[in-house]
Amino acid sequence: MPIRPILRALRHHRFTTALIVLEIALACAVLCNASFIVAGKLSLMHIRSGIDEPALAVVTLDNFERQRADDLNARVVNGLRKIDGMQSVDLVSGLPFLGAGGESVSPDREGKRGSYLTSFYFGDPGALPALGIALTAGRLPRDSDVVPDDATIVQSVITRSLADRLWPHANPLGKVLWCCHGTGGFQVIGVARELIQAMPRDDISVGNAIFTPQRSGPMLAGQYLLRADPARVNEVLRKARAAMATLAPDATVDDEHTGTLGDLRHRYFRSDQATADMLMGTMVALLAITALGIVGLTGYWVQQRRKQIGIRRAVGATRRDILRHFQIENFLIVGMGIALGVLLTYAFDVALMKFYELPHLPPAYLLVGAIVLWLLGQLAVLGPALRAAAVPPVVATRSV
Amino acid sequence: MFGYYLDLALRSLRRSKTLATMMVMALAVGIGASMTTLTVAHLLSGDPVPGHSATLYHPQLNPTMPPRLVHEPTSAMDYRSAMDLWSAHRADRQTLVASSPVKVRVEGSGEPPLPRQVLLTTSDFFPMFDVPFRYGGPWAPTDEGPHARVVVISSTLNEQLFGGANSVGRSLRLRDSDVRIVGVMAPWRPAPRFYDIWQGRYRHGNTESFYNDPEDIYTPVATGLDIFAGQVPGVPVHFCWDMGADGKSMQTAPCAWLSLWVQLSSPAKVHNYAEFLKGYAQQQKRLGRYTSDQTRLQSLMQWLEWNRVVPGTVRMQAWMAQAFLLICLVNTVGLLLTRFLRRSGEIGVRRAMGASRRAVFTQCLVEAGLIGLLGGVGGWLLTLLGLWMVRQQPVAYADLAHLDLPMFFGTFAMSLAASLLAGVLPALRASRVPIGFQLKTL
């Protein structure tokens, strides 16, 4: 079918065409950017943590006397170990999705050779195997690796990705990395294959984490990592939570920081989930409204052009030709909308990048957005176009 | 004439019910999304102390010592500076605040202790921030010594522990000390909890926690320090500028943990206080206690602005909803145009019988306005639904999401303005319909 006559016909409807083009362009811009944000949120929410999440839970206590922490730890750990189904109980300070201390670390004491924001996890030496972390080099921490709380250099396991950032071409084992203006050093005894930072938000510091064994005391108290069979972890946690009233009557349970690792992940990402839900709802409503606009305007054109359609039918055009006319017309209009939409999309993208520190929109989103809008257009135009195709040739002879 | 146009508009709506319903719905959805997000943004960027927030100021010093040189005054002060400035009494009113977790229970109730937040503050806190009282009142300024054992509690805690009864004079166990209740607040919900927000500017929009409920327990600073034996557990270690801070009493530790707020009722007083603050900072620098004599005196609203308190997600959702409303508007322009032009014949007759272009234009706008009004009603209902959905979310500000009067009228104003705006171009086109041509085709 020749395109020229369709374009010429459109010239008679410049204003309405412009409206659809504008609507498609705006829809394209919102659709592409919103789906990009949603995709970012979804991939962040499903980020791999490197720990054995389904088997783990944590209980956090608050408001206890730090000076008498050893007594509390002993009571709680011994009590929890007696719970049926409990595989292990370990003291920890900080976990993924729960929060942990963090500082910039450098390969040199002066901090001149680059600095990397890193999460500091602490725990008793058994906590690392309980988390289900595999090492690619070195060894797991032993009791003898635990140094006094006031030591300048501690023995630690760091992640592969942090090791690669700090010493790209060297064996990290035995090396010391520094934090806190050279006041604290971590000597590497092992390299973990994967362990996410405590508060995953961006791509820059993904996997920057250090685990340091520590002994029970004022600095390591009140947070307990529970390990159980994945099928029983909820039950074990419930029993552990209930046992706290008798095991630690002198403390209060911090319920916001207590739960299975699944709960913690869910809680940590709940505002991202809410944003993703809201944006997906907006996108659905947006597509519905755009379709409505196309149906309305095309329906009007069909009604307006009934006589012309009749004449074309009378001089030999088939129903199929008429149908095609409206379909191609719609394809062209949506195409123009997308062309304008590309510009608008990138304008939105630049604004979002500026205010929300989002990465650049990959062109694939535009391609998918364009295909979705083209399909939507064809779907929306089908009804009015079929009505147009049903106009009988005899209309041409009436009321001239 | 207006009544006649309204009648015509109603008839026209009745004639094509489906299209009219769809138009009203599309507009309502746009208005609903827009007003829900705008209402949330409006509530979160509101004035937490309406009436006299303009007289409240937040003085800041920059105590940073090497190795942690920061070129910004800190949000809070160390104990000594805070106490020096507070006890100078250079402002109309002045108060100190620091928040900390604590366990609380009623002695002899047999219930386990509850984890709650306590605010260490001074008696001026209550009149300065317009805190309403249900029973009793603030403690007397004479109760600010270390051995006083007085607290004010929130209405929420009074409800939980005493079933809402007058609990003034009763005692609570706070950590390991018995304290006497002197006042019970009426419900008070400043949004944000402006007096102890920190570092909002560097949180990349993750400021939701600024909208948490205020603390449940209020006690004088000296009493709090005494109860906590000098170690306030809620003070984060990273606000200390000397690593030797561990184990020291919060009274002598080089840590920023007390925020100072002052009330200054005239520009002259603000000027004088700023001078006083500068003088103090210069003196501290001369004494070698500080390395910087930088100071800042921001009003409450400036302080909120500086901290960028409205959460990033709320702002992004508001922008997205406005873009969505824009699409709904373009859609309405298109649909209104088809409505009017479908009736070109009718308009032609009216024009031929003497109606002016202006009359046709007005008639069309009245119809657009009617659709806008209906869309406004729908938008209002959808806004209520949207705010209900916000209230179901597990966010700190969920309980705040209610439609207030300005936003209620705003919904209708926006809907009417949007539909009239959308109606102008189609109405202009309709009023330009050539008479003769349309009559011929009838």
TrEMBL record, chain A:
> Major place of localization?
membrane
Where is it located? Cell membrane
GO terms of molecular function: transmembrane transporter activity
Q: How does it sit in the membrane?
A: Multi-pass membrane protein
Origin: domain of life: Bacteria
Q: Which UniProt keywords are present, listed alphabetically?
A: Cell membrane, Membrane, Transmembrane, Transmembrane helix
Question: A Pfam family for this UniProt protein?
Answer: FtsX
This protein's GO cellular component annotations are: plasma membrane
Sequence intervals crossing the membrane:
20-39, 278-302, 330-352, 364-382
The question of whether Transmembrane is a record keyword is answered with: yes
Q: Which InterPro entries match?
A: ABC3_permease_C, Macrolide_Exporter_MacB
Where in this chain does the record put each ABC3 transporter permease C-terminal domain? 283-392
Q: Does the keyword Manganese apply?
A: no
Q: Which family does it belong to?
A: Belongs to the ABC-4 integral membrane protein family.
Name of the protein described by the UniProt record: Putative ABC transport system permease protein
Which source organism?
Answer: Rhodanobacter glycinis
TrEMBL record, chain B:
The molecular function terms in GO held by this entry are:
transmembrane transporter activity
Q: Which UniProt keywords apply?
A: Cell membrane, Membrane, Transmembrane, Transmembrane helix
Domain (MacB-like periplasmic core): residue spans on this chain? 22-223
Annotated membrane topology is: Multi-pass membrane protein
- Do the record's keywords include Cell membrane? yes
Q: Where are the transmembrane segments?
A: 20-44, 319-338, 359-388, 408-428
Q: Cytoplasm as a keyword?
A: no
Localization (cell): Cell membrane
An annotated GO cellular component: plasma membrane
Q: Which residues form the ABC3 transporter permease C-terminal domain?
A: 324-434
Which Pfam families does the protein's record reference?
A: FtsX (PF02687), MacB_PCD (PF12704)
**What PANTHER family does this protein's entry cite?**
ABC-TYPE MACROLIDE FAMILY EXPORT SYSTEM PERMEASE COMPONENT 2, MEMBRANE COMPONENT OF TRANSPORTER-RELATED
Q: What is this protein called?
A: Putative ABC transport system permease protein
